[in-house]
Amino acid sequence: MRPALLGMYGRKNPQTKKGAKEELLRDKQMLIQEIRSAHANWVAAQAHFEFALDKDQIDYAIYAMEAAEKRFEMLIKQAKRLNLSMIDTDRLLEV
Predict the structure, then answer these.
(1) How far apart are the first and last CA of the chain?
(2) Rounded CA gap, 95 and 5, in Å?
(3) For 82, which DSSP code?
(4) Where is this region: Disordered (predicted)?
(5) Which end of the chain is more exposed for a tag (fewer CB within 10 A), N or C?
(6) What is the pLDDT of residues 82-94, one digit of tens each?
(7) Which residues lie across from 78 on neighbouring strands?
(8) What angle (nearest 5°) sits at the alpha carbon of residue 87, between those of residues 86 and 89?
(9) Which residues have C-beta within 8 Å of that of residue 95, sequence separation ≥ 6?
């Protein structure tokens, strides 16, 4: 347990528990925004690959596409660990 959640004599402090819930909500909101941004970057990297002409551009496009895909996958795994469903995203972002 984080020290911030402990009140006097090691008991839970209800006010900091509320703060922890708000912090978790902010973290989820930021994660949703990061996932959307990462997906947009991945789609853009795929489009860049489609229009690459010479060998250097193709190599760069492949590198950028793989990096964007890995970042997107990493963020999705993080969302799964937080039990975050994309169905809930609109509700979380409205708050």
Answers:
(1) 27
(2) 23
(3) T
(4) 1-20
(5) N
(6) 888 766 666 655 5
(7) none
(8) 60
(9) 25, 29
